[in-house]
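pinging the channel bc i need a second pair of eyes. not urgent but kinda urgent?? the chain im working w is below, pasted from the shared doc
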Amino acid sequence: LAAARRLGKELARIRTGEEEPAPERVREAVREVITHCIYGVDKNPLAVELCKVALWIEGHTPGRPLTFLDHRIRCGDSLVGVSDLSVLKEGIPDEAFQPVSGDDKKIAQALKKRNKQERTGQLTLKFDAQIDLSPLATHYAPLTDLPENTPEQVRRKKELFKKQHADPHYVRLKQACDLWTAAFFQPLTTDHSPAITSEALSDHLAGRPIDKRLNGKAEALSEQHHFFHWPLEFPEVFFGAEKLLDKTQQDISASLFDIILGNPPYGAIFSEREKKILHYKYPIFVKAKNSAAYFIAIASSLVYNKGYVGFVVPKSLTFSAAWSSTRELIYPQISKVIDVGQAWPNVLLEQILLVFSPDASNRPTIKLGRIYKQGISFLHETNKTIMKRLGIVPTGMSLEDYQLFKVILKNAKTTCGEFCTTQRGAGLQKYLRPQGDIPVVLGRDISEFIKPVCSHFINMQDLQNKKLTFTTKGQAIFQNIVAHLTKPKDHIRLIGTVVNEELACADTVNLLNIQDNSISPLSLAGYLMTDLINWFVYVCIYNRAVRTMHFDGYVLAKIPVPSLECLKDVEKIAQLLHQFPRNERYWKDLNQVVYDLFKVPTVLREYVETMHKPRWKS
């Protein structure tokens, strides 16, 4: 709706030559934009109908009928289906026959072997004529060109749309795409029905008859799972894209989408069969934990090389290890990232506006901004090389942060990950008791350099085969959760201590395993709790995010260290703090040592200190 309004107003300005065109002129222009420019896809049929109603209201013009939108606002799963018709020429991938829950492994193995033989044998066949989209695009042309000034014209469009979907060329391609996709969803069991393999697909494309039950199975699975084949649904957008594979040779401005906008679902749960096709289509995201990653991937393949994609996505995309594969994919294409914080009052997660474009690959910098009450404020442009070095998209970095980061980068010789790993405690919450056989330390029991006082216990008889994680004598342990979801603060605080006894640890505790005997647990613990290191973790690793964060191995591995020898300078002060954990002088001395090791200028030291509550006042 916002896109239609924005384009409509610009169109009205061009037509009238006025900065603020009359409302009726704007509404007329919005109607034309909706008719000619807006496309939409949703898996939920109700959402599709509501979208049409909203567009009808937005573009309603007195004296003219409601616009025809069935060919532009479609129902389907935008992730599941064929988005590039060239895959049909390669046959059905062997990955489609990977067994999941409910499948017979022997049957899956046999079908996989059979499919591989069929696929290898068909590579010499040519299907170029059969997957040509030009007839479909030609049939679609009247749907775009026919006016909608009378009910009769709208009815004519509806008839043309039905006729196009009954066209033999469309039906053949639709059935081929359904066969290809259905192969990933068909049960691999002994139900005595024929299985969809590459031979059936190649026969179908070549015009040879295949078992009707195969098309019936593919059609049923298509309806059940809402298969969506982008080139078939919007042929006027994709016509030419398959043939113009070398984008340097011809102008493909008429192919693919100019702009793609969305607020993709973040936590959608995929079935095992959905994961099978998604992991095949987007292998870089096999370990992706957020469904929005797949929508970013499909959008990047649907936008033409000078177009733009704009998505609302979680801020964790800018820094989290779970999003690392997505960042790798879009790093070159990022154009702008705007931090909007907690965009909606009832949604605790922070959000960003992500804008990327294939054309941005030629630009060395990206624009970073934040939304304040008065509007968008672009903070600066960031070099992509620095961004990759950070491993985040630094929307939260100020100019002072950049200056300090460069100082640290210049003086850092190694990272904590080179000599230390982390081990998270066990999930023991349901076994905790006020009394029991074994004391358990929780994250909340840990304070700076203070011996933990355990208020929870477990009974051995309750555990059965549950494995425990115990501390060793003289081991550093830290709180795993370093920020709070419901009551966030504008900083991150690493809190740890060193224990001299065996304690079972819950999963809210991280144990540090130092692999270099020359480094004492006390010196490392003290180093990690200095103001400078906590600034670095908050700004340069967590990108100033303020919701729940975990201090784990991914974070530890990024923390810079001037040199291993420098940690010995920290050890003596850390030993004193272990004895006197609330001593103001010792905490100040500890911070001073680390500032000196990184050669941080006084003005930047003062900047860091404004962000932290003194440890001795904890």
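so The longest strand covers residues 303-314. and Residues 434 and 456 are 5 Å apart (CA to CA). — does that match what u expected or am i reading it wrong
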